[in-house]
Amino acid sequence: MTNSLYAVYGASGCGRGIMPLAKAQLREQGIAAERLVFIDDNPAASLINGHRVLTYDEFLACEASARYAILAIANGNVRETLARRCAADGVNTWSVRAANVITMDDVTVGEGAALSPFVTLTSNIRIGKHFHANLYSYVEHDCIIGDFVTFAPGVKCNGNIHIHDHAYIGADAVIKQGTPDQPLIIGHGAVVGMGAVVTRSVPPGATVVGNPATPIVRK
């Protein structure tokens, strides 16, 4: 519908990285750039990179036959809160992917995904809702990824890995391949630090750093 309104929710660095992908995707569908805006709860400007910046209430007040938003917030807990807010207000979930994303065989990706340039998803992969895969990250075969998971740039997720909801994987982290009978597990809400090399499963809520990755002990 040409009168639909589309939004990137979040005008920080994450949102500004997703916006050009969203614009290109809509252009392929014949939808004008004017129908694409930023939403920001605390806007610093009324125009960013040529796109209007609206508060959430202003977005809801705009004339539109339907509304769509992708949640460009790195924090998975915040993404979940905003997803519930949008659903309650009838704002549709929207997925955005770069034109050069590679998806191979038997890959399922849930609603609301943001797939940046040079992302690769190989084969036999299940990914949940509102997944963020930043530049040059990949997911290898036989992986299961939960909801609201975030990959920073350059994440290497090798085969037979299970990543539970709300996990955050830092830039250039490497996760060692598991086995079909004993997948390597990244627990719910776990954080893998930048450049970490993960060689064993990470408990829920833990933060691991280093090579090999070890938990941070909080005093």
Automatic annotation (TrEMBL):
One of its GO terms (molecular function) is transferase activity. Keywords: Transferase. The active site is at H141. InterPro entries: AcTrfase_PglD-like, Trans_hexapeptide_repeat, Trimer_LpxA-like_sf. The record marks D142 as: Increases basicity of active site His. Belongs to the transferase hexapeptide repeat family. This is Acetyltransferase.
